[in-house]
Design brief:
The protein has about 325 residues and is α+β, with helices and mostly antiparallel strands. It is built from 9 helices and 12 strands. The model has no long low-confidence stretch (mean pLDDT about 90). The chain binds dinuclear copper ion.
Length: about 325
């Protein structure tokens, strides 16, 4: 048993360190805000660790000294007392200097963070819902305003301003590879500026407990070159693709006649609900139900047939459909690229 202890220890550490990299890690920064924060936390950790080690040494040294053989009469030594007083005062002074220094560092880091998005050309309003993200691209031209859900495309290398709010409870927007977290509060608008240095997909997670499916409230920042981003925005502005097959046509009719239409919008059709994700281009997204399932025909069917099994407590109701009807609706939705 003893032989396996080191192996178990190394394995545990290796598994633990796995969390330090990848598409959702504050220790693997991919943008200026996350880099600033990572630098700050490493500096704080290093300095505090050094102070801790020094304090431990200062404590351990007298403890390790050989105890005196017998009690000696108390001698008042003014010089020794003065030396000790100087040591204590120096330690107090150093502590004050370190604390003030760390406070100043935090202050300047905050200023750096605030400067990231000061010239942001793109503003995206992110609204938290139990348990998904509404994403609205603002534009001076009303016909260019785009609403989508859960996945946030941004141009790489450019600052983007996020306006964060919520319709129900407090959520928290956190994409660790790109920035710190910020709450989405009903009735309030918080501003978070982000920037991704390079194209890539960065995972985010709601970071404030917001109810039963808090853990299944994921988001994805998809940073891509400017031309690709512009093309994506243009595509998304278009109406939903017309159904290509008879089955998909049946699916569209069913969708419009059943309760789906009460909550979801599909651009170019009479479906105009706004309390649930916009489905105009749902099949172009990589996941379903805010990162709960990957996008596929099977998962679409599973989600519609049994939303409470996939995401218990979610506000997606079970719609009464037979097998053929379910297949038809799935055929329609999977064509909405
Ligand atoms: Cu939304 Cu936790």
């Amino acid at each position: 048993m003893k032989r396996f202890a080191p192996i178990a220890f190394v394995t545990a550490i290796a598994l633990f360190l796995q969390g330090c990299a990848g598409w959702q890690s504050a220790l693997d920064p991919k943008g200026p805000a996350a880099s600033e924060l990572a630098w700050l936390i490493w500096f704080f950790t290093g300095l505090c660790a050094a102070v801790w080690v020094l304090v431990m040494i200062a404590l351990a040294l007298p403890l390790m000294m050989r105890p005196r053989e017998r009690a000696e009469p108390l001698v008042i030594d003014a010089d020794a007392d003065n030396r000790k007083l100087r040591v204590v005062l120096t330690a107090v002074g150093l502590t004050a200097v370190i604390l003030v220094g760390l406070t100043l560092l935090s202050f300047f880091a905050n200023r750096t963070l605030a400067a990231i998005g000061s010239d942001a050309a793109l503003t995206i309003r992110v609204t938290g819902h139990q348990w998904w993200w509404e994403v609205r691209y603002e534009d001076a031209t009303p016909s260019h305003i785009l609403t989508t859900a859960n996945e946030i495309h941004i141009p790489a290398g450019e600052p983007v301003r996020l306006l964060l709010t919520s319709t129900d409870v407090i959520h928290s927007f956190w994409v660790p590879s790109l920035s710190g977290k910020l709450d989405l509060i009903p009735g309030r608008m918080n501003v978070l500026d982000i920037k991704a240095d390079k194209p890539g997909v960065y995972r985010g997670q709601c970071a404030e407990f917001c109810g039963a499916q808090h853990a299944n409230m994921g988001t994805f920042i998809i940073a891509e070159p400017r031309e690709k981003f512009d093309a994506w925005w243009n595509d998304q502005l278009g109406p939903a693709a017309a159904p290509m097959s008879d089955e998909a046509k049946t699916g569209e009719n069913l969708f419009l006649k059943r309760p789906c239409v009460m909550c979801h919008k599909i651009g170019g059709t009479p479906a105009g609900g706004t309390v649930a994700p916009d489905l105009t281009h749902i099949a172009s997204r990589q996941t379903l139900a805010a990162g709960t399932l990957t996008m596929s025909r099977g998962n679409l069917a599973a989600w519609i047939a049994d939303p409470q099994g996939v995401k218990p407590g979610s506000h997606m109701p079970v719609v009464d459909l037979n097998g053929d009807e379910l297949n038809a609706i799935v055929a329609y939705l999977e064509g909405l690229k």
